Amino acid sequence: MDTEVLLAKAAAVVSLYAALFHAWVFGLHRHARDHGWLAVAALGACLVSYGTALGYQATSLQRFLVGQQVQSIGVPIVTLGTLLFTMVRFDLRAPRLERAALAAATAMLILTLASPELLIHIEPGLAFPQTESVRGTGIQLSLLGGLTLGIALAFFVTPLVLCVHAWRRGHPAAPSMLACFGAWTAAGLSDTAVGLGIYQHPFLMPTGGYMATAFTLSSLLLRDLARARNESEQRSGMLQDQARDRADALRAIDLRLARGEQLAAIGTLAAGVAHEINNPLAYVSTNLNQLRALTNDDEHDPDEVKEILAECREGLARVGTIVTDLLRMGRHGESDREPCDLGDVVRALLPLVLREAGDAIEVVTDVQSPLPVVGHPRLLRQAALNLALNAVHAVRDGGTRRVPRIGLSAYADHGNAALSVRDNGPGIPPELRARIFEPSFTTKPEGGGSGIGLALTRLVVTRHGGTIEVESDADGTAVTIRLPLGPRAAG
To answer: What are phi and psi of 297, to 5 degrees?
Structure first.
């Protein structure tokens, strides 16, 4: 008897832990309905096993009835949980069967809690303690209790029928569950026969039925969890590899697009650059014609010849500079870049700006130093000069009533070296702001400009990894270039 009590209590503890574990899993993943119903079944198994232990240990009729009542509460719970677990496990849709099982379990619980004496018939004069032979005969099920037991048995064997059906369909979990519910059904039928007094035998369900069921069904779900985790890790690895491959492909596409945009911009600028090249070439051609005329004159001035040759060299040098700049912007590599100071770049172009501005335009400067960047000093100087000359032309041709003024400033700005060119001209009309960086677009009169200055400036800034921003209103225009700060310029 002590061994049976110990086994019944052990089955109750195991079932309780199983109920708590599967309830925890269901709380984390509400879609895991099989864990939820297995938690219900394990809770019912805990009650039946604990009620059995109370019955074995009963020393009075009252304690024995309490054990029987606990068992009667657990039976519909474990039957309902097991049935619905099996249906979820095999993905069976049977709403009528679910409703019938819920109604039967609810009715049994209400009847057991309200009037347990209606289910059990106690012979008059039954005394405790009893022997095992008396327990099967002195307390028997009533007619209502037998009817209730029959309904419970009908639902009790349903999981076994569902397992047979799933096994015939080839469900992978069917063999394990079929063996589990086969032992479950045999133990249940044996305990029913013992309870009806057909023969004397220890109750098997608390140990051989519920404990084996809790272990088997829990192991099935744990195996599925392990497989799901392995599959999740494998899919995660595959997704990471795919994401890495896609990122590499997109990066390659971006590089090709950037290269294509760069070449397209250079091609568009070529038409405007041709105009700039034609000017010094025409200048050189004119000087050469003049030089030929002088050489035919025996009394030509040698100094004049030298001056003409110097002007020709200057014009050809300008052509070479333009071609070199285009070649630099068309290159992939950055090996020809060097550390330089943006402040020095701005100071170098100040004489040209002051000469172009003249006495009528006020030029205000605020240049901080050092502002180290890595790039092409001459290209950066040309870009800054384009912005400064545009500002000079804006205040000169804008017809403003204020004193014409432009400002050049260079400063550090949140990890960047910034160059800002401001003017108090009339500003840029809103409808034209989106087009100011288009090659060959200009607001100057015919012959006043080629329209490539801002386009070339933006290309230079982009090639240096920087940004260019334009703010304009009725009070003037401000163009700001930001370049990444680099190591301090040597020397």
So the answer is: -95, 120
Choosing from 189, 208, 238, the residue where a domain stops is 238
Nearest residue to 23 (alpha-carbon basis) of 206, 218, 215: 218
What angle, rounded to 10 degrees, do the helices at 158-169 and 143-156 form?
20
Query: Is 137 part of any domain?
Result: yes
- Rounded to an integer, what distance in angstroms lies between the CA atom of residue 218 and that of residue 23? 12
Query: pTM for this structure?
Result: 0.45
Q: Which tens digits make up the pLDDT trace of 46-94? A: 888 888 888 778 777 777 778 878 888 888 888 888 888 888 888 888 8
- Can you spell out the DSSP letters for 362-416? EEEEEE-S--EEEE-HHHHHHHHHHHHHHHHHHHHHS--SSPPEEEEEEEEETTE
User: Per residue in 92-144, pLDDT tens?
Assistant: 888 888 888 888 888 888 877 777 666 666 655 555 555 443 344 455 666 66
Enter the tokens of residue 389. 């000359």
- CA dihedral (349, 361, 358, 317) positive or negative: positive
pLDDT at residue 446 greater than cutoff 60: no
Query: Are 176 and 36 part of one and the same domain?
Result: yes
Mean pLDDT to the nearest integer, 325-340: 62
DSSP 24-60: HHHHH-TT-HHHHHHHHHHHHHHHHHHHHHHHHH--S
SS3 485: coil
Q: Is pLDDT at 454 greater than 70 in this prediction?
A: yes
Q: In this structure, are 218 and 355 located in the same domain?
A: no
Q: Alpha-carbon distance 134 to 123, whole Å?
A: 11
Backbone φ and ψ for 430, nearest 5 degrees, come out as -55, -35
Segment 190-209 mean pLDDT: 69
| Rounded average pLDDT over 408-427 | 90
For residue 252, what are its two tokens?
């390659």
Residue 387 lies in a domain: yes
44 and 154 in a common domain? yes
- Is residue 448 packed enough to be buried (19+ CB in 10 Å), middle (13-18) or exposed (0-12)? exposed
CATH code (residue 54): 1.20.1070.10
**SS3 at position 209:** helix
What is the pLDDT averaged over residues 346-358?
Answer: 84
Closest CA to 47 of 12, 81, 3: 12
The burial of 144, by beta-carbon neighbours within 10 Å (0-12 exposed, 13-18 middle, 19 or more buried), is given as middle
Q: Report the chain's C-alpha Rg in angstroms.
A: 48
* Domain at 413, CATH number: 3.30.565.10
Pair 220, 352 in one domain:
no
Q: Which range of residues forms the domain containing residue 149? A: 2-238
